[in-house]
Recover the amino acids of this structure.
């Protein structure tokens, strides 16, 4: 089936599954063991400024109610601010992204967009306002053009190409004999990690959301791809509230603010420079994880 033929809600469902399935292999079982869905319906805001607030958020995954993941977490993202979250593995960084996209609701406290608790907002509408660039973006088995178009099925070819150019993807796409018509996925060409990321960035450009979530790749891209991805991301983030799940020193050094997550709470917050000037988890993480890696 053509991707554009899928209804938006079906795409959202697939995306929810992809979100839940990424990460640890055991999480894939959730595709079989489905959790109760977030109820549909709710308010749509006429416009989005992009102010995000987590207030005293307590959260455990429904499949593991005895394991507290977030324990009274507070965080604020001001409109247009680029904030990176760092922390040890399992600290809950990806969980923040899942709660912001409302794939789950917290058991305590609230997550709010422009002052409206997410539980009062329509989930589909919310997700249309959030762009996501995953570590390993999932491409569908269809053409590159339809992969870019999936969040905006009525986009013209010219709009798709414009988005691809902004994402530094146009040149590599043009080099395929069938260009934008090139089939990707299982029965098509295999794209490199950096190329997949640029397709995902093109999707986000076309979607033009107020909020962005970037899950930075942990595995290294080749130098050329790395540069093109970084350049495209910088353009994409401009003017959008951005939450980056960061793994690289070069990223955290350039953001407005870094949040350090540990034990289900934000334990440090500040610029890279200010956090480096004090004793604490951040400096230890940078010294061990980033520099040693
Ligand atoms: P990493 O850097 O390793 O990706 P993280 O900081 O993003 O880690 P999360 O993926 O948010 O951490 O996980 C936080 C905790 O919640 C971990 O203990 C993890 O095992 C658990 N967890 C994550 N996803 C699920 C899930 N879908 N079901 C149950 N437990 C989960």
């Amino acid at each position: 089936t053509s991707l554009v033929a899928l209804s938006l809600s079906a795409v959202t469902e697939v995306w929810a599954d992809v979100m839940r399935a990424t990460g640890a292999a055991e999480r894939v079982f959730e595709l079989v063991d489905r959790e109760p869905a977030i109820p549909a319906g709710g308010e749509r805001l006429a416009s989005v400024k992009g102010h995000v607030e987590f207030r005293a958020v307590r959260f455990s995954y429904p499949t593991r109610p005895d394991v507290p993941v977030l324990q009274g977490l507070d965080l604020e993202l001001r409109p247009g601010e680029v904030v990176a979250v760092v922390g040890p593995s399992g600290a809950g960084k990806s969980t923040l992204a899942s709660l912001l996209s409302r794939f789950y609701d917290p058991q305590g406290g609230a997550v709010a967009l422009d002052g409206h608790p997410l539980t009062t907002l329509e989930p589909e509408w919310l997700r249309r306002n959030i762009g996501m660039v995953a570590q390993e973006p999932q491409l569908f088995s269809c053409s590159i053009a339809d992969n870019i178009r999936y969040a905006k099925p009525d986009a013209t070819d010219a709009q798709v190409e414009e988005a691809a150019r902004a994402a530094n993807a146009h040149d590599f796409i043009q080099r395929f004999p069938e260009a934008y018509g090139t089939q990707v996925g299982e029965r098509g060409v295999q794209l490199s990690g950096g190329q997949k990321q640029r397709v995902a960035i093109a999707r986000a450009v076309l979607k033009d959301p107020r909020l962005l979530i970037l899950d930075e790749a942990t595995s290294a891209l080749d130098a050329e791809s790395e540069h093109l991805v970084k350049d495209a991301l910088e353009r994409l983030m401009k003017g959008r509230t951005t939450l980056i799940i960061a793994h690289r020193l070069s990223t955290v050094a350039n953001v407005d603010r870094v949040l350090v997550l540990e034990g289900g709470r934000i334990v440090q917050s500040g610029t890279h420079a200010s956090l480096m000037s004090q004793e604490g988890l951040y400096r230890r993480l940078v010294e061990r994880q980033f520099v040693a890696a």
